[in-house]
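Researcher: Here's the sequence for the chain we discussed earlier.
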Amino acid sequence: MATVEHAIGEHDYVELRGGIGAWPAGRRGTVVSDYGDVKLIEISDERGAMLDLIQVPETGLKLITKHSS
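Model: Thanks. This is the structure I predict for it:
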């Protein structure tokens, strides 16, 4: 049986597979822009205030929740 990979796109909730800058592996964020193989991820605090924007290769991300349109 084949495993289906879901492409990561805008508004998806993702987790970092490895550390990026100050953010450790496991940190979660939301894709705010999709540049193909690279995604712009918004890191927010528990109140939803933006803390950082980071660019991450799609291979460095794990999909947590797929945004449904």
